[in-house]
Amino acid sequence: MAVYVDDFKASGPVEALKKAWTLVRSKIRTGAPTPIGRYLGCHHNVVELKDRRVIEYDTHDFLEQCVSHYKKVCGEDVDKLPEEDDNEPGKLADAACSVLMKVLYGARLARFDLLKAVAGLASKVTNWSVSCDKRLFRLMCYINDSKGLKMRGYAELVAAILALRTQGLPALEVFDKVFGHKVKLFFEEDNNTAISTIKAGYSNTMRHLGRTHRVSLRWMREVFQDGQCEIRRCDTLLQAADIFTKGFTCREKWVAALNMIGIS
Q1: Contact 121, 135 (CB under 8 A)
Q2: pTM score > 0.70 for this model?
Q3: Staple 156 to which of 5, 67, 194, 195, CB 3.0 to 4.6 Å?
Q4: Alpha carbons 27 and 2: distance in angstroms, whole number
C-alpha cells in the first residue's frame, strides 16, 4: 500500500485487498475503493496482452502541463532556439528550477529517459547561460513530441555494490518467501574489467575503493560465490542502464534504449 497525503493505492490478492480496505476505512474516513486509474498525475492502465497482463503508466497529461509551464515562464515565442552568445546569462535563469523540478517528478514517476537530461541541466542552475536555455528548449521539444510515450512495467563497481546491497539481496529475501524456494539473481555487467575484479575480489589499482566509496570487493566476490547470485557478461548494446548514464546522438540507438526500459 502507498499513501501520499490523502491518496491511497494498494495492490494484492482480491480477498486480502478487501480486508485491507476494511481495516483502513475503520480508522480513516475515505471514499469507496475504485479500480486503479489516475494517481498523483499518472494514469495507470491495465493492458491485456496475448500472454500476460501488464500495468501501463501514462504521464501524457502531466507532461503536457510541463510544456505549458515552460511556455508560460518563457513569456515569448518559443518556437526557435535563442540566438545570443552562449556566454551570455540565460533568460530563464530565474525560472529554470521550477520547470526542471516539475519535469523531474514526471521523469522519476514513469519517464526514466528524461532523468539524465534533467539532472545535467539541474547542475547548471547556479550559472545558467544561453547555452542552457538552448538545451532546455531542446528537452522541452522532445517532451512535447514524446509525451504520449508510456512505460510498461516489465562508475561500474560502485553501482554494482549499491544495486546488490539496496535492491538485489533484499529482493531475494522477498522472492524466496513468495515463491517458497530459492530464486536465483542474475547480475548483468558489460564491463570486462569490473567482472574480473569482482570475481577476483581484489584490485591492486582500486585499493582506494574501500575508503573512498565504502566498496568491499571481497564482499561482492563472496556474494557471487554463494551460488544464489550469478554475474554474467552483457553486450553493451543490450545494457538497459546506459540511458541513465550516457548521451545518445544516434536516433536508432536512442529508440532501442527506450525499448529496453519499457518506454514506447
Answers
A1: yes
A2: no
A3: 194
A4: 16
